[in-house]
Amino acid sequence: MTVIVEFDPNGAEAIRSALGPDAAVLPGLDALHAHLDVNVFEDCVVLGPTVDQIDADQLAETMRVNRPSLGVVLVRRRIDTAVLSDALRSGIREVVQERDLSGLAVAVRRTREIADRLRVQVAGTEGDLRPTRRGRIVTVFSAKGGCGKTTLATNLAAALATSGRGTVALVDLDLAFGDVGIALQLFPTHTIADAVPLGEDLDGPALLALLTSHRSGLQALVAPLEPSGGDLITPELVVQILDLLAQEFDYIVVDTPPALDDHVLAAFDKSDVVALLATLDIPALKNLKLTLETLEMISFPRDRLSVVLNRADSKVGLAIGEVEKTLKAPIVAQIPSSRDVPASTNRGVALVTDDPKSPVSIAIRDFMDKFVLAPVSEDDIPTQMRTDRRGGRRWRK
Ligand SMILES: Nc1ncnc2c1ncn2[C@@H]1O[C@H](COP(=O)(O)OP(=O)(O)OP(=O)(O)O)[C@@H](O)[C@H]1O
Ligand SMILES: [Mg+2]
């Protein structure tokens, strides 16, 4: 259920009718506290425009510690940066403009989804204060721009989200020019830059409130809207964000900029799988070889690297066997070229869900099945079937 506190009766009724029959109005903050004491599964509180901002911040701060699954949604007449930063700092999940009643309904739905997820997690870790869940982190990278990183990252995340194998977060680490939000036609209210002012208050619930839902089920942490918006994001913050997401989600897919900077290296360090993308052209392959050599120099574990060839069917006179010889690494997946890819991007949909039979979708799902999905426990597989499910090709020294 959702409870509303708003002192103006007309305003309270407008909010209540926007939220449907599963919402009730309470007469004030004392009544709210009394209600919450009794109703331990209450998951969402909406505070209307007449509730004092300081009271709202205090309530959110208390609940964040005592009852992390409860989400507070704040309705304000005017939303400015002061309101937003106070709200973020105190742990208010969403701030919605008074007249945006459909936005309010979406914010409440999202808050309740988060509450559900947090409750499941708390139930799973009861009696053990350490987070036990550890999601798999998959980073998609190529040092040359335009190779298809965002295409692979968004489609892989959508494929995982619809695979029934777990929850999925997608992080856009292309801090200056990230376009995950555009590729998936998202309308984010927060970006990764909002994690900076949270400082020590950045925790699981605060981070979940910065995510934007996509219809495939994935939750995206989008890049800042301005190219300089990510200037204050440090590699340490990237590590903290990935650690927190790995406690909340089963899979975390990371899109990257075309440069092996400290943020990308921090993501690599946390990753179970690093998909290195190339296309069949000399600059892309040269950059991939340099990336492989750099990773070798820093002793990055080779078994976490997967070389993926995009637009693999391009007729450019380079044989795949020759490319593997030059790279001294196997190409584990080949994604064909298709006009469906830019067409789906322009429509803001993920090709894997929009056209699951497209050869590109099939190739991406095949890569997911073989290299990304968490291995099924050996105990679950009959002995005679315990073979190398990855296809067995090895890196050459
Ligand atoms: N397999 C493919 N077939 C056809 N077009 C493709 C394919 N993969 C990617 N593209 C197109 O190539 C362009 C670049 O792709 P994308 O944005 O995914 O690359 P990127 O590596 O993320 O680029 P950047 O380095 O600029 O972030 C897009 O227009 C995309 O639609
Ligand atoms: Mg990109």
Provide tags for this entry.
single chain; alpha/beta; Rossmann fold; 2 domains; eight-stranded mixed beta sheet; five-stranded parallel beta sheet; 15 helices; binds adenosine-5'-triphosphate; binds magnesium ion
What does this structure look like?
This protein has 397 residues and is of the alpha/beta class. It folds into two domains: 2-124, 3-Layer(aba) Sandwich (Rossmann fold), CATH 3.40.50.2300; 136-385, 3-Layer(aba) Sandwich (Rossmann fold). The protein contains 15 helices and 13 strands. The protein has an eight-stranded mixed beta sheet, with helices on both faces. A five-stranded parallel beta sheet has the order 2-1-3-4-5, sandwiched between helices. Helix 1 (9-19) packs across helix 5 and helix 9 runs parallel beside helix 10 (262-270). The radius of gyration is 23 Å and the shape is elongated. The structure holds adenosine-5'-triphosphate (ATP) and magnesium ion.
Task: Give the helices and strands, then pairings.
Layout: E1 2-5, H1 9-19, E2 23-26, H2 29-38, E3 44-47, H3 53-66, E4 71-76, H4 81-90, E5 94-97, H5 101-124, E6 136-141, H6 149-161, E7 168-172, H7 180-183, H8 204-208, E8 212-213, E9 219-221, H9 235-248, E10 251-255, H10 262-270, E11 273-278, H11 282-297, E12 305-310, H12 320-327, E13 331-335, H13 340-347, H14 351-354, H15 359-372
Parallel strand pairs: 1-2, 1-3, 3-4, 4-5, 6-10, 6-11, 7-9, 7-10, 11-12, 12-13
Antiparallel strand pairs: 8-9
Helix pairs in contact: 1-5, 3-4, 6-15, 9-10
The structure holds adenosine-5'-triphosphate and magnesium ion.
